[in-house]
Amino acid sequence: MLGASRLLLPLAFRRLPPPRQPQSLVRAFSSKMAPKRKATSPVRPSPTKKPKAENAVSSHLSPAEEAGIIQREFYPPEMSNARCEQYHKGEIPRPMDVLHSKIKDTKAQRETIKVGESVVHWFKRDLRMFDNRGLSQASEKAKEAGVPLICMFVVSPQDYQAHLTSKARVDFDLRTLEVLRADLGELDIPLYTTTIDKRKDVPSHILQKFQEWGAKHVFCNIEYEVDELRRETKLIDTCLQQGVDFSPVHDDVVVAPGSISSGTGKQYSVYSPFFKSWVKHVHEHPHLLVESPAPSANPEAARKKFKALFDCEIPSAPANKSLSAEDRERLASFWPAGEHEARDRLDRFLAEKIKSYQAVRNLPAANSTSLLSPHLSAGSLAARTAVRLAQQANSSKRLDGGSAGITTWISEVAWRDFYKHVMAHWPYICMGKAFKYEYSNIEWEYDDEAFRRWTEGTTGFPIVDAAMRQVKTMAWMHNRCRMIVACFLAKDLMLDWRMGEKYFMENLIDGDFASNNGGWGFSASTGVDPQPYFRIFNPLLQSEKFDESGEYIRKWVPELKGIEGKAIHDPYGRGAQKQAEKAGYPKPMLDHKKCRERALERYKVGLGRSTANVGGGVHN
């Protein structure tokens, strides 16, 4: 839990439908159950039917689409389970495999291209100079040829929308870019930044810039989501047609997807054996942890030749992702940006906290985690750097030996790799489907009022409410609490878990799709390596175990700060009713025991149904 590792990461553009009249969940769970919307399958289109143009929305929307889970502005209807199974069996080419093949097949042709007037590195989620594989290779190529290195970053409002990027994350990235621009400037390396309104126009714009700068070699670090893998595959061909060598590089993970597999040659879907294989692979390939050199300084003439690029300012956040001045100031105080802050934070953690990490990492009030997740997500710190420095601080050079605190923390960084491997191998999880796509048959709820109370932290369960209010202030939540609130939404409320996944991405500063999806899959029992569906967190027991003194609750739920002893965990059930009522704290919105029984029944019935045609879109 890198401050919050597994469940990262996590309200801007596609809101839930307007709330209906409030409805008491306690009443809903009585014998007279109120009508509920059920997750019905959308109409299945012809497999050859192309997705609608952006902003064109079908007149028939499933509840998931109405809730904005499947964004019809950018994507086709929900994929069928049958098509998921084709991906699962490898009958449909995986975008990661297609990219690898393209890189291999074009290697000889690309190697014939001579260096032009400059070399370009395209920053995306690797906003640092230190230990950056793609940037280092670009700098080496430029230095060998004696030409300038140019860096670029593109702000894409539609990509932010399509990827559910939070306002806090956009602000953090832009603040990080300010630091990066200054650092590059000291080496006479320009950072070109611009805003491209339509995501489909990004490739043509950057190609135009390559021509304008006379660049024949372009480097970038690979992102493992489907959209980005397909974009990079197309760019290799498009660039080649214009005599440009476009080279995507593995950097975001310690071990690249596809590098390790089980004894039967399959991708791991359970973490424990994955981690053993991951450790073995890194021990056998120590170069994976070797630091990449920082870029060399440009020739002095670069500043004069590319003066306009040096004058280029970092864009403001687009309107759809802009924070208020108050929010910007608050979040900047919580989360200073840039790779220097990331390294300082890592160094302090290694010196002061990591030895006790295993013992106290689950206590949200203990301030015991690294708080590095925003930096890992934005790329102002490389996962490789984190593992290497933790290894150096250990008494053993084995990644799974020595200090229990250090090995536990390293294993949490490996969780991040694990989820990206899963995303690359089972790409349909990027398309609104669960890894366990058969869970599409479960009868989920889409109750707007219940969802609102969950997001606002007014459920009447103190540990849940404390965690949800922490997000509103810090754009971050402790990992143990992420699991508690996720289980509460998916199993107590029986809300479609993808509503929570979406909310996290839209509100967390450390939002990372793979880790966020993996964490929600764990808590909702729909993902790889999940808790079995019949294991349902009791929020009261979780509260008592991990916030025994109630310190975390009192910090984030001020209405309860005057309640002493064990009553803090359940004020209405433990004699503090008058205090809670006077302070305006709500009664529990549900009966956990009844909700647990309902969840068990829903999961059991749902998993017994045929799954082949649930969902109906191609969404390939």
TrEMBL record:
Binds 1 FAD per subunit. Residues 16-63 are annotated as: Disordered. Belongs to the DNA photolyase class-1 family. PROSITE patterns: DNA_PHOTOLYASES_1_1, PHR_CRY_ALPHA_BETA. Keywords: Chromophore, FAD, Flavoprotein, Lyase. FAD binds at residues 357, 369-373, 409, 412-419, 510-512. Pfam families: DNA_photolyase, FAD_binding_7. Transmembrane segments: none annotated. The keyword Nuclease does not apply. This is Deoxyribodipyrimidine photo-lyase. InterPro entries: Crypto/Photolyase_FAD-like_sf, Crypto/Photolyase_N_sf, Cryptochr/Photolyase_FAD-bd, Cryptochrome/DNA_photolyase_1, DNA_photolyase_1_CS_C, DNA_photolyase_N, Rossmann-like_a/b/a_fold. Residues 117-254 form the Photolyase/cryptochrome alpha/beta domain. It comes from Neohortaea acidophila. It comes from the Eukaryota.
